[in-house]
Amino acid sequence: MEQYYIQREASGYVGNCLLWWRKGHNGYTCDISDAQVFDDNDPKFLDAMNNSKYRAWKKEAVDSAASLHVDYQKLNLRDSFGGGK
């Protein structure tokens, strides 16, 4: 059975990161490890495919393109060195 992530197409980006349905249907996330995985028999998946706000992506394709990134807002400048300051 194929597995999918659901992307929100309308306003579905933060920077260059896609927004995915979060696990437990609790909003959206850019963190793919926090995204809900669907199969093609899931009623929520079927509902989403009837709504133009959403796009399904094959889990395997997304996982192979995913990368880890650092959110600058979570860092404390005191933990860095250099930069002429």
What does this structure look like?
The chain starts with a strand and ends in a 20-residue tail after the last helix. A hairpin with a 2-residue loop joins β2 and β3. It has a three-stranded antiparallel β-sheet. The longest helix is centred in the middle third of the chain and has 7 residues, at 43-49. The chain is built from two helices and seven strands. The protein is elongated. The chain has a domain at 3-59. The chain has helices at 43-49, 59-65; strands at residues 3-8, 13-14, 17-18, 20-21, 28-29, 38-39, 54-58. It has 85 residues and is an alpha+beta fold. The mean pLDDT is 86.
Radius of gyration: 16 Å
Q: List the uncertain runs.
A: none
Number of strands: 7
Helix and strand pattern: EEEEEEHEH
Amount of beta strand: 15-25%
Order the strands across the largest sheet as they lie in space.
Answer: 6-1-7
Itemize the secondary structure elements and their pairings.
Blueprint: E1 3-8, E2 13-14, E3 17-18, E4 20-21, E5 28-29, E6 38-39, H1 43-49, E7 54-58, H2 59-65
Antiparallel strand pairs: 1-6, 1-7, 2-3, 4-5
